[in-house]
Amino acid sequence: MGAWGTDIFDDDETSDLRGGLEDLLVAGVSPTDASAKVVLDWDLSLLDTDEEGRLRNGRLWLALAVAQHEFGVLQPDVRDRALAFVEAGGDVADFETEYQAARRSALRKAAKLLMSKPKKVRRPEKFKAQRTAWQLGDVLGYRLRSGRWIVVRVVGISESGSSRDAHVELLAWQGGMPTTESVRSLKRLQTIQFEEHLKDVWKTPESPYQGEQLERWAQAWRSSPRRAEDEARIRRFDGIMQLPTEHEEDFDASRVIALGNQTCEALGGHELGGEFPYPWSRFEELLEDHFDLR
Fold it and tell me: Per-residue pLDDT tens for 102-139?
């Protein structure tokens, strides 16, 4: 299971579960039948408890309950199982110590939500796939709200179902309107967190060492060939962002100019993790947070 935070839907399974329920509701399936199918698809037995009487898959029951509440179709039995999971302490112990307080807070907020009256039934809108027309190597100028221009280059294309997104790196240009010639040899701009990422690279989750062994491993890493490899990896992926598509409601074509296409090595798969800035206003927030650009 991949996880990226402590909130209710901050892992692959709970996110997929919510998406499955949403897809069924979008397709016109009744809330009762949609929920029943989710329970069946995820193999959630109503009587599935461990040796100590705790509900198994409580995390998934909680996700289902919160998703139902969001769409105004909360079922009492699902709510009760989710609340029982939270009252029993939830899965706080499954998180590392530094994240337990945040997870405990997320569980409490979810329980408070489930105790409140759901809004009226809301059928989620049918998802409209968005496909960018930008291609690998495309160089784009983007005018910030401040009037300054930045330049990005498409370094990867990801496709999922009928969606197609462009992933970009930021090039070292800040100021007036760029031209195709002026951006021909620009280097990549690293984030303001880049140096900190280099310092912390040895703390990656892949490390088998914990506690007092960790620093000894770190010292050995700093003088090994692995360090250069890891630093190159961090440098390569640092600051990669998914560009909002031209179909977003707040897209302003007058703030984007095409600056030709440059040959570049394509990133793919997990390399395109990065940030996902939707809508375009979020893109500017990320530029400020990660590159101190305004």
Answer: 999 999 999 999 999 887 776 665 555 578 899 999 99
Specify burial of residue 13 (Cβ count, 10 A radius: 0-12, 13-18, 19+).
Answer: middle
Look up residue 95 and give its amino acid.
F
Listed residue (27, 41, 35) closest to 72, CA to CA: 35
Q: Where do the structural domains in the chain lie, given as residue ranges? A: 12-115, 138-193+238-291
Amino acid at 255: R
Buried b (16+ CB within 10 A) or exposed e, 188-220: ebbbeebeebbeebbeeeeeeeeeeeeeeeeee
Instruction: Output the pTM of the full model.
Output: 0.54
Give the Cα separation of 9 and 101 in Å (integer): 17
Structure tokens at 195: 């140096």
Taking the C-alpha atoms of residue 136 and residue 138, their distance in angstroms, rounded to an integer, is 6
Instruction: Map tokens 């959630």 to a residue.
Output: 44
pLDDT tier at 1 (50, 70, 90 boundaries)?
Answer: low
Torsion, CA 201, CA 207, CA 213, CA 217, rounded to 10? -50
Model pLDDT, residue 232: 76
Question: Tens digit of pLDDT for each residue in 163-182?
Answer: 788 999 999 999 999 999 99
Residue corresponding to tokens 């901050």: 10
Evaluated on CA atoms 162, 66, 45, 102, the torsion sign reads positive
- Report the alpha-carbon distance of residue 269 to residue 37 in Å, rounded: 30
The CA distance from 82 to 103, in Å, is 15
Rounded to whole angstroms, the Cα distance separating 287 from 292 reads 6
For residue 157, the surrounding DSSP H or E stretch is strand 149-160
User: Of 37-41, 182-186, 231-235, which range is least confident?
Assistant: 231-235
